[in-house]
Amino acid sequence: MTLPHTGRALADAAPVPYWLDRPERPDPLPPLTGPQHADLLVIGGGYSGLWAALLAKQADPDRDVLLVDVGTCGWAASGRNGGFCAASLTHGLANGVDRFPDEVGELDRLGRENLDAIATTVAEFGIDCDFERTGELAVAVAPYQLDGLAADAELARRYGHRVRLLDRDEVRAEVNSPTYLGGMFDADRVAMVDPARLAWGLRRACLDLGVRVHEHTRVTGLRADSAALRAATAGGPDDAPGSVRARRVVLATNAFPPLLRRLRAYLVPVYDHVLMTEPLTPAQRDAIGWRNRQGLADTGNQFHYYRITADGRILFGGYDAVYHYGNRVAPELEQRHATFTTLARHFFTTFPQLADVRFSHSWGGVIDTCTRFCPFFGTAYGGRLAYAAGYTGLGVGATRFGARVLLDLLDGGNTPLTRLDLVRRKPLPFPPEPVRAIGINLTRWSLARADAREGRRDLWLRTLDRLGLGFDS
Ligand SMILES: Cc1cc2nc3c(=O)[nH]c(=O)nc-3n(C[C@H](O)[C@H](O)[C@H](O)COP(=O)(O)OP(=O)(O)OC[C@H]3O[C@@H](n4cnc5c(N)ncnc54)[C@H](O)[C@@H]3O)c2cc1C
Asked: Residue span of the signal peptide, if any (predicted)?
């Protein structure tokens, strides 16, 4: 069903990420030219690469660190996400318990420490990114989801999380939607952040510490010589060639076509889409009673996440997760009318009080999905290159932890982080095409069907569950 006002509400939405469409966006830095040398080359200027560069410089100010990005720092997932900065390193506690039962307590502790360290860095460098520890409210919108919330709360309490279950009236007193049947509030393990400003602030901090940053510079290939790695680059409007010879390399290219062939088996780029409303008027805000600025997410298999921005807009994203055959990533895939219409319809079902609200922006971005839904790590070229990927839509916080792991791996150290199962073990690979696309699309279809059938998982999902490949948000 298309609500009559859905088309009107979307009519003027700018097809760009709201977060990146603001005057404070920094001017691009010049592309790399000629041959260069560095102790550490970081490829990719999203959170992963920026944290790696920053932490490397903090650990050793004399280390010569050079970072390149094919676009500008933060233009990709890092500057266009929902801004839920979570402590979890394992895409939720339940996924962590399933996959790393022996060390999930330690991962939980490290995740909490990581979130605190992000807060400290934001304060220390004066990063103006509206970092607010307002927590996350998970809501049940179908009766069967109430049992799931109760189970999640019990598990969370076992690990010492201070969560609170809310009944129908309590949850609607927090945020008033006629769809809400109950909720679980996690007060202190999720912060809300302005994602692009976090990326831009990390870039500024890197520059202040002396990291050399070149934007609009693509690494086109890597090869080893006797003592170092050589990265070939193409930069600027003319694709001018350049090169960097570096002792160590961090590969932080997320869901983009990887420079290491072996990574292709482990990653699929999945498009996630988002709508942003115009700023709500005080009367509209009163109508939904959303006063506490916490992040929200519903708890279906196909779920929505939403939050309020500093200037009082609602960001509403998620639900569809779209895979394009052959791991395709392309700018034209960021706009998807059918998904925006679905999201708008769900928005108005969630908040019928906001029937006259319009959307100012609509966009999509690519998520680095792996079969275990949380990051994996590795090295190549005899330990001179380290990579991290597979954050599967929960990388705003976890990428800082991932960057610490990368630096430990490059130091060749046997450290508490490199000894983790999470770091040593790889996820199962995806099959090659066409089985890959068939499997992913069948999974999507089955998840939608489970949501429509009170959570009942079909034979395909139960088989994936048995193989340790199932996902239950
Ligand atoms: C719509 C959307 C919503 C999301 N919401 C959330 C959320 O609320 N909470 C959460 O925790 N996570 C969320 N995520 C996921 C989160 O944004 C990512 O996990 C995180 O930003 C990954 O950071 P990254 O640095 O690894 O990747 P990216 O930010 O994608 O950075 C990778 C960089 O590598 C560069 N690059 C690629 N190839 C090359 C090359 N050959 N040469 C040079 N540079 C190259 C790219 O230009 C890019 O800038 C969301 C993602 C999307 C798309």
From this structure: none
What single-letter amino acid sits at 242?
G
**Quick check: is 58 in a domain?**
yes
Going by C-beta distance under 8 Å and a sequence separation of 6 or more, which residues neighbour residue 467?
428
Calculate how far, in angstroms, residue 456's C-alpha sits from the geometric centre of ligand 1: 33
Does residue 407 sit within a domain?
A: yes
* pTM score: 0.96
- CATH number of the domain where residue 249 is located: 3.50.50.60
Tell me, yes or no, whether 259 and 201 share the same domain.
Answer: yes
Same domain, 206 and 248: yes
Residues 210 and 255 in one domain: yes
395 lines ligand 1 (CB under 6 A): yes
Is 67 near ligand 1, meaning CB less than 6 Å away?
no
pLDDT-based confidence at 473, cuts 50/70/90? very low
Check if 393 has its Cβ closer than 6 Å to any atom of ligand 1.
yes
> Which residue's CA is the closest to the ligand 1 atom numbered 20?
395
What residues have CB less than 8 Å from 217, skipping those under 6 apart?
31, 32, 68, 69, 70, 233, 234, 235, 236, 242
With cut-offs at 50, 70 and 90, classify the pLDDT of residue 465.
confident
Determine the distance separating the centroid of ligand 1 and the alpha carbon of 181, expressed in angstroms.
Answer: 33
Structural domain of residue 384, as residue ranges? Answer: 34-84+196-263+372-424
Residue 91 lies in a domain: no
446 belongs to a structural domain: yes
pLDDT for the residue numbered 186: 96
pLDDT digits (tens, 9 = 90+) for 229-281: 999 999 988 899 999 999 999 999 999 999 999 999 999 999 999 999 999 99
Match 């266009």 to its residue by tokens.
80
Number of domains observed in the structure of the chain: 2
6 lines ligand 1 (CB under 6 A): no
